[in-house]
Design goal:
FAD/NAD(P)-binding domain; alpha/beta; disordered N terminus; 23 strands; 10 helices; five-stranded parallel beta sheet; 2 domains; 373 residues; globular
Length: 373
């Protein structure tokens, strides 16, 4: 290493890294320096994005003061974006060209938008990713699709896409906009129980949200679903999951066939054990862990423990093992939510209240940490 650098560099302010910083605040930062490399002073909680889009929350309600959290954790914040890593020389190159030496590194940058790769290029596409500025970009695009009778399309049949379809319906209901959810050939809420799928279908039907379970694409300027055009379309909001950024594989870090950082059960890179990764940018190789905010949040404490133990020289590390089922709360943007847990599901106001309580409590937990310092 050319110059002395931080003992630990956290790349990205994702949900797992928020857990690491929270652990540093609660239990003290382990020896040496910690630096967070992130392009944003605030982190946005993804679970509150549909509710904010629907107008249930104010724009700032889902924000976590990343700069304050870093300060209270005894770390340093560098407002920049990672462009490359030399994993052998242990040097990070930021987008501005700054080089940051490190001893230990953890990556939690999230995935990248892939709507234009999947759907084709068109100016009407609004990709949910990058999540950090999606709501601002949505507000900027609303004016162009706010005429009476506008046709707004949500693309993506997962929980995020379903929540966005409900949120967009509420956002546009005052102008009688038509909202369509294009779930794709895997169908509505793939991987969820039939009961949860049925409850979501019925809620969409009651609101007049059209559901199409075929793949979509832009073809010669027309939005095609299956072999038919559903034009006119004014806005296409895509929630298609995160793709892998190019720089980890280009840097020589072991990645999967689709470009995600390949990690073991301790979240360590298979090729470079001094590099850890979590969240949407990583993929466990020992078991399948779905890429969702639920699992990223639960990975945070385990990642914090493993980084702490590695810094102090311990070899016994922990592993995050998902439960057989996770609780999902899918807002229908009317004060209600579909609660799904394994084969069980229900739809009601109690589930909506539970979702808001969990979301608000998680965001407030970071503010409470700051006040406790």
């Amino acid at each position: 290493m050319a110059t002395a650098g931080p003992d630990l560099v956290l790349i990205g302010g994702g949900h797992a890294h928020l857990g690491v910083l929270a652990d540093w605040v609660r239990n003290g930062r382990p020896g040496g320096r910690t630096l967070l490399l992130s392009p944003h002073r605030h982190a946005r909680y993804s679970g509150m994005i549909p509710g904010t889009a629907a107008g249930e929350y104010a724009l700032d309600d889902g924000l976590i003061d990343l700069a304050a959290l870093v300060r209270f954790a005894g770390a340093e914040l560098v407002l920049d974006r990672c462009a490359a890593i030399d994993p052998d020389q242990r040097i990070i190159t930021a987008k501005t060209g700054r080089q940051i030496p490190y001893d230990l590194c953890s990556i939690d940058t999230g995935g990248v938008g892939q709507a234009r790769v999947i759907l084709g290029d068109d100016p009407r596409i609004l990709d949910v990713r990058p999540i950090g500025d999606f709501l601002v970009r949505l507000d900027q695009r609303i004016d162009g699709a706010s005429g009476k009778g506008s046709h707004v399309v949500a693309v993506g049949g997962g929980a995020g896409g379903v929540e966005l379809a409900f949120a967009l319906h509420r956002r546009f209901e005052s102008i009688d906009a038509r909202v369509t959810l294009v779930a794709g050939e895997p169908g509505l809420l793939p991987g969820f129980s039939r009961l949860a799928q049925g409850l979501a279908r019925r809620a969409m039907a009651r609101k007049g949200i059209e559901l199409i379970e075929e793949d979509a694409r832009f073809e010669e300027g027309r939005f095609m679903v299956g072999d038919q055009s559903i034009e006119p379309v004014d806005l296409v909001v895509a929630s298609l999951g995160g793709g892998a950024p190019a720089w980890p594989g280009a840097s020589g870090i072991a990645v999967t066939e689709d470009g995600f950082i390949a990690v073991d059960r301790h979240q360590r890179s298979l090729s470079h054990p001094h590099i850890f990764a979590a969240g949407d940018v990583a993929q466990r190789q020992d078991i399948t862990v779905p890429r969702s905010g639920v699992h990223a949040v639960h990975t945070g404490p385990v990642l914090a423990s493993n980084l702490r133990r590695t810094i102090v020289g311990e070899v016994e590390l922990q592993s995050y093992r998902p439960r057989p089922a996770s609780l999902y709360l899918i807002s229908t943007a009317d004060g209600k939510a579909v609660a799904s847990y394994g084969p069980f599901a229900a739809h009601g106001r109690w589930a909506g209240r539970l979702k808001r309580w969990i979301d608000n409590r998680w965001v407030a937990s970071f503010a409470n940490l700051e006040r406790a310092v």
